[in-house]
Write a structure and sequence with these properties.
Elements (H helix, E strand, L loop, with lengths): L1 H25 L2 E2 L3 H10 L18 H11 L28 H10 L4 E7 L9 E5 L9 E7 L13 E4 L8 E4 L7 E11 L1
Antiparallel strand pairs: 1-7, 2-7, 3-4, 3-7, 4-5, 5-6
Helix pairs in contact: 2-3
C-alpha cells in the first residue's frame, strides 16, 4: 500500500511539472504583424541592417533576412530549449534555424514554444508576410532559397500569380531586392504561412 502511494505521488508531481512547463514556457500565442514584417522587408531589401550579422559571403543571407522580417512582425528570438531561433555564427541544427533555408522550415513547422510558428500552405493560401522557398535543382529533398512575400497578386479565382512580389537577400548585392516569383528559376516551390508566435 505504501509503495502505491509513493507511485501515485510521483505521478502527480510529474503531471504538475508538465503543466508548469507548458504554461510558463510556451507563453501566450500572439498574432503576427504582417504589415510590420513586410515594411521591414521592403525597407531593407537592398541594404543590410547593422544590428544583425551578414551571411552573404558564408552561404547566403536570404534566410537571415527573412528571419529579421519575421522578428519585425513581433516574433521574439528563441535562445533556449531544443529549438533555437536567433542570429549567431554557430553551425548545425538547431543553431542554424535563423539562417538556414531547411532548418528554418523545420523550426517554424515544429516549434511549440517561444518564437514564431508556421505551417505549409498552398500557393493560393499564401499571404503577405509569409515565406516562399525555392528549390533550384531538385537534388535531394532540400530547398535552396528563402524570400518573403511583400505583395501577393491573385487572379479573380484567388489563384496566386507568379507576378507576386517578394523581397530577398542572396550571396551578393545583385541578388538583393524586390523581385517577382517568376524571376526565380525554380524547379520546386513551397509556401510557409506564419500563423503567429509564442512570446
Amino acid at each position: 500500500m505504501k509503495f502505491k502511494k509513493i507511485i501515485s505521488l510521483l505521478l502527480v508531481i510529474a503531471i504538475l511539472c508538465f503543466c508548469f512547463d507548458f504554461v510558463f514556457a510556451a507563453g501566450t500565442f500572439k498574432s503576427y504583424n504582417r504589415t510590420n514584417a513586410v515594411n521591414y522587408a521592403v525597407t531593407w531589401a537592398t541594404g543590410h541592417n547593422q544590428n544583425y550579422p551578414d551571411f552573404s559571403t558564408t552561404g547566403g543571407d536570404c534566410t537571415n533576412f527573412a528571419s529579421q522580417a519575421i522578428e519585425a512582425g513581433g516574433a521574439p528570438q528563441d535562445k533556449t530549449g531544443s529549438y533555437l531561433w536567433y542570429p549567431n555564427w554557430k553551425t548545425g541544427w538547431p543553431y542554424s534555424a535563423w539562417r538556414s533555408v531547411n532548418d528554418l522550415y523545420k523550426y517554424l513547422t515544429e516549434n511549440t514554444w517561444t518564437g514564431p510558428v508556421g505551417k505549409l500552405v498552398s500557393a493560393n493560401n499564401a499571404l503577405k508576410g509569409d515565406l516562399v522557398q525555392f528549390d533550384f535543382d531538385t537534388t535531394g529533398t532540400t530547398y535552396d532559397h528563402t524570400c518573403i512575400i511583400t505583395n501577393p497578386v491573385k487572379n479573380t479565382s484567388g489563384q496566386l500569380l507568379t507576378s507576386t512580389k517578394i523581397a530577398c537577400h542572396s550571396t551578393s548585392s545583385s541578388g538583393n531586392g524586390i523581385f517577382k516569383i517568376s524571376d526565380k528559376p525554380y524547379k520546386k516551390i513551397r509556401f510557409i504561412q506564419i500563423t503567429g508566435y509564442y512570446d
